[in-house]
Amino acid sequence: MMNVRAAAASVVFQVVDQGASLSSVLPEAQKKIKPRDHALLQEICFGVLRYLPRLEATANELISQPLTGKKRVFHHLILVGLYQIQFMRIPDHAAVGETVSATQDLKGSRLRGLINAILRNYQRNSASIDQRIQDSKHDAVQYCHPKWLLKLLQESYPEQWQAIVTANNHKAPMWLRINHQHHTTASYVKLLEEQNIDVSLHPQAKDAIKLATPCDVTLLPGFEQGWVSVQDAAAQLSVHYLAPQAKELILDCCAAPGGKTAHILEQVPNAQVVAVDCDSSRLNRVNENLARLNLSAQVICGDARHPENWWHGEQFDRILLDAPCSATGVIRRHPDIKWLRRADDIAALATLQSEILDAMWSQLKPGGTMVYATCSVLPQENSQQIKTFLSRTLDAQLINSEIDNPGRQILPGENDMDGFYYAVLQKTI
Predict the structure, then answer these.
(1) For the chain, where do the domains classified as CATH 1.10.940.10 start and end?
(2) Which residues fall in a coiled-coil region (predicted)?
(3) pTM, to two decimals
């Protein structure tokens, strides 16, 4: 089996240097290590990506000659070692020893002495090195976000951007969604308490329970029987705003991995739900989730911009449009987003969202309701998108609104939720 630090360095290398997503490469890496090390691998990978600029700045203080080409993975191994020393409870000698040992699995035993020297140098001089980095006042290093994203957040939220960044750099809590076909919230809370699992409730998302400490889903009563699912409370509010009714024809657009589709059916089992997504591989997750929960929906692979290619039925009573977005509201769950997204992605995403909005509006019945949702905090994808849509769509009426902006913007950390946006739109008759 592979050394867990070697696996972590390989994962970080693939994300940062090759642009792979953490959700795709981490499961593959876990297959190469001992099961007992899965949580440790995840902690290291998430942590390095969460604090990447700070770790890079530290490494630059210690490395005289950059590690390039085939040696590049060993640069990331150094970051793995630094993260353990700076942020984890692992004793320094163990963190250094195990990280140095990882050179063998990465076929770089000749670099063993170099990496050992770099990490021990940091051990000896961490106070002075950390102070120099602190004194640099480099925003990307201080806040561990790319410059372009910090600029957008500062422009959009002049009084709140620091709170957003702080929330992004913290670990996300574990929220559960109770399946009321099996249990009430109160009865399931009692089951958790019997297992000595401490929880708290959400003031608005009535199916949401937050665990005081995340745990493996196998420890949750009735998980395999579909009594409960893992889903952030902010995402659960989509069904609150959609307000599905019995026997309605409902579309979940951009549905993968299927959490919202399932939530609709848990609330209204006799609704006719259609789930569409353009990614056939991710639709497998939709089918898996529905099977575990013993729920049934019509699952279709199709491009939301061109419903004429996949839908020939009646117009829908309700549409939940969970639009493709920058995912800047869920950075605390997916820290790789900070390094995979680029500034010019935002305009392209806004154009795509606009096209899907127009296409889906044509599929909504007069009098019907559409919920436009994103897991973004950027106004270009949210309030500005909806303002522009309303200006060009005469039969669209906004139902929910904050004081100055259309819709509701949830910021990361609000009631311990992810960042989300919701606009509830009604088609006038």
Answers:
(1) 4-141
(2) none
(3) 0.95
